[in-house]
Amino acid sequence: MRTREFLTKLEHDRIVQAIREAEMKTSGEIRAFIQRGKLKSDPLVAAQRKFHRLDMHKTRERNAVLIFVAPRAHKLAVIGDKAIHEKCGDVFWQRIVTAMHHYFRQHKFTEGIAGAISVIGDMLAEHFPRESKSSNELPDDVIEG
Fold first, then answer.
1. What's this model's pTM, rounded to 2 decimal places?
2. Cα–chain-centroid distance for residue 84?
3. 3-class SS at 144?
């Protein structure tokens, strides 16, 4: 699928709202990145590079999560920083990706991403509940690049 077609079907406002709702329960940070154009590497490798370029590894508690979608390549990846990854591991991330694929095959892109954000938010809230001193360290917008 062409990235432009994917983006026209994506409801950015609903995704941003899902991020905000999830982050109200946790000190963790969630971001969604949509890769424009071709994907030149493995989606997990590309997601890890993007995670660092977006300075997501610099959050205070090392509990940021990136949802990486490459619509043209039909690939996606979900990665978490060190602290959250230690709590949930690879199996959790793979379950998120599998669920997203299920929605994407039905062309329910917003639902797939928003659903992933909700599940990730619950996991973050369980291990990193929001405290009075918690602040929003990263923007909540959907990133395209």
1. 0.94
2. 13
3. strand
Cα separation, 43 vs 111, in Å, equals 21
- pLDDT tens digits, one per residue of 74-85: 999 999 999 999
Arithmetic mean of pLDDT over the chain: 94
Hey, CA dihedral for 92, 2, 18, 43, is it positive or negative? positive
Fold for 3-144, please state it: Diaminopimelate Epimerase; Chain A, domain 1 (3.10.310)
Domain ranges across the chain: 3-144
What separation in angstroms does the CA of 92 have from each of 13, 55, 104? 26, 23, 19
Query: Can you give the three-state secondary structure of 86-139, one letter per residue?
Result: HHHHHHHHHHHHHHHHHHHHCCCHHHHHHHHHHHHHHHHHHHCECCCCCCCCCC
Per-residue pLDDT averaged across 3-16, rounded? Answer: 88
Residue 106, pLDDT above cutoff 90: yes
Angle at 138 (CA atoms; ends 135, 7), nearest 5 degrees:
140
Angle, helices 109-127/82-105, rounded to nearest 10 degrees: 160
